[in-house]
Amino acid sequence: MTSIGPLFDLNELNEEQQKKFQLVSTELKAKFQSYLEYKLNLSLKIPFNKEEEEEENEWNYELYRFLRARKWNIDHTIKSLYDMLQWRIDNQVDSILEDEKIIEKTELLRKILPNLNHGYTKINQPLYFEKSGIIFLDKILKLNCQRAKERSKQIGKHIGNLTIISDLYGCNMNIRKILSSFKQSLYIDENYYPERLSHMILINPPTIFPDIKNTLLQYIDSDQLPIKYGGTCQSCSNAPNCIPVFDWTQEKLNVK
């Protein structure tokens, strides 16, 4: 294991996959270097200071994910990766969490949408819980990509996927009002973060969904699950409830 996490091993691909990987890598080399220069020139409170070797290693895993997502079609993969890099630049993705307005909205979302990054699955994928029956907003991919990188360094094995558990208790037909936002988040997931979501498990679903609550322990060790969901977690600061729900009687909602 190196200080930058498990290195991408091209030899794990078959001969045909290696050739396609190299073709995509060569074709996008200039665009990727341009993107790195863009990141280095950002005015950030916490400067971008990753070593070039670490960036290249993460880029190799990104190439591999996009190739799998595009069924190893070279042209589709190149276009998707090019669009993804340009999307990050156009939407200032790499500096968005330092924007004061975004920080305010993020804090508000944490109150509106009870959620928690909590433990890992049995195959070390970061676990994210949210009480989706109250409201559903997919704003967690970037954070959990970072959690996956940190977990990779901890265990010496690349982790590129995550698992989401959505508690649909309280869900009613009003959920239709936010379907357009959900569709938009799915578009971003599919086009700019492909091959990231491993499992999405729904618990306490309304009657239109099958009840799959009992499957949780097939994927997740008991000590990684809140007691409410059949686990035994006592280690996190909010145990045994684990997922804090904001008390709106203590504060009025102030939407700017």
Nutshell version of this structure?
With 256 residues, the chain is α/β, with parallel strands linked by helices. It has helices at residues 15-27, 29-40, 52-69, 74-90, 100-112, 141-155, 179-192, 216-219, and strands spanning 115-120, 126-130, 162-167, 197-203.
Explain this structure.
- The chain has 256 residues and is an alpha/beta fold.
- 41% of the residues lie in helices and 9% in strands.
- It has helices spanning 15-27, 29-40, 52-69, 74-90, 100-112, 141-155, 179-192, 216-219, and strands at 115-120, 126-130, 162-167, 197-203.
- Strands 1-2-3-4 form a 4-stranded mixed β-sheet, covered by helices on one side.
- Strand 1 and strand 2 (126-130) form a beta hairpin.
- The radius of gyration is 20 Å and the shape is globular.
User: Structural class, from helix and strand content?
Assistant: alpha/beta
Mean pLDDT: 77
Order of helices and strands: HHHHHEEHEHEH
Summed up, the helix count is: 8
Percent of residues in helices: 40-55%
Distance between the termini: 47 Å
Strand percentage, roughly? 5-15%
